[in-house]
Amino acid sequence: MEEICTKLDEALLEYLSLISKYQENWQQISKELEGAFMQLAHTKYTMGPGRLTQDQYDGRMQAATRILISQNLGVEEEEKHYNHQFSLINGHLENDENINESESSQSIDNSSILRRRNVKELETKTDNTNKTKKPQKKQIIRDPLHWFGLLVPPSLRDSQKHFKQGLVNMVNLLNIRNEILEKEAQYRILKQEKEKFMQELSKSKEPVNEEKNTQENVS
C-alpha cells in the first residue's frame, strides 16, 4: 500500500512538472513567432512591399526540414493512441540526375521516356560495374532567403531564425503533450490499483466484524 501511494505521489509531481514545462514552451513559442513577424514587418518596410511577395517564391521549392514520427516502444498496448515521438530531420535531397531530368522534360510523355532510358542505363551500369559504385551527388537545398536576393537585410535572417526556433519548440511541445498523456494514464492505473487494494482490504475486515457482533449477542 505504501509503495502504491509513493508511486502516486511521484507520478503526480512529474505530471505537474510536465504541465509547467508545457506552459513555458507555449510562452517561448509565442515569443519566437512574435519576434519573427516583427522582423518580417521590418524587412518589408526596409525592402519595400514589392520586394517581399509570393512572386519571389521558387516553384521548385523543397522542404528543408521534415518531421519524423516514430513509435515509442516503451508504451503499453492500451496507451498506443499517443505513443508517437516527433523529431526534426533534414529535408529529402534528390540527386542531380532526377532534378535535371524533371527540368528538361517538357511533357509527361517525354519524362516517362527519359525515366525508362535512365532505368535501362542504370541496369547496364550495375551489371557491368558492380565493383565500382559512384556515390550519388546530393542536391543542396537552396536557402529560401536567396529567393529575395543574395544580400538580404539582417532582419530577414533574424526572422528566419525565429521561425526555425519556433518550429523546434512546437515539436518539443508535441512530445511534452505525449508525456503528459502517458503520465495521466500511469496515474489512473495506479489509482485503480489502490482502489482495488482498498476493496480487498475492506472485504477481509468484514468477517472479523461479523464474528465480534455474534460474540456480543451471545454474551
Automatic annotation (TrEMBL):
<feature type="compositionally biased region" description="Basic and acidic residues">
    <location>
        <begin position="119"/>
        <end position="130"/>
    </location>
</feature>
<dbReference type="Pfam" id="PF21730">
    <property type="entry name" value="Vma22_CCDC115"/>
</dbReference>
<dbReference type="GO" id="GO:0070072">
    <property type="term" value="P:vacuolar proton-transporting V-type ATPase complex assembly"/>
</dbReference>
<dbReference type="InterPro" id="IPR040357">
    <property type="entry name" value="Vma22/CCDC115"/>
</dbReference>
<feature type="region of interest" description="Disordered">
    <location>
        <begin position="199"/>
        <end position="219"/>
    </location>
</feature>
<feature type="compositionally biased region" description="Low complexity">
    <location>
        <begin position="101"/>
        <end position="113"/>
    </location>
</feature>
<dbReference type="GO" id="GO:1990871">
    <property type="term" value="C:Vma12-Vma22 assembly complex"/>
</dbReference>
<dbReference type="GO" id="GO:0051082">
    <property type="term" value="F:unfolded protein binding"/>
</dbReference>
<feature type="region of interest" description="Disordered">
    <location>
        <begin position="99"/>
        <end position="138"/>
    </location>
</feature>
<protein>
    <recommendedName>
        <fullName>Vacuolar ATPase assembly protein VMA22</fullName>
    </recommendedName>
</protein>
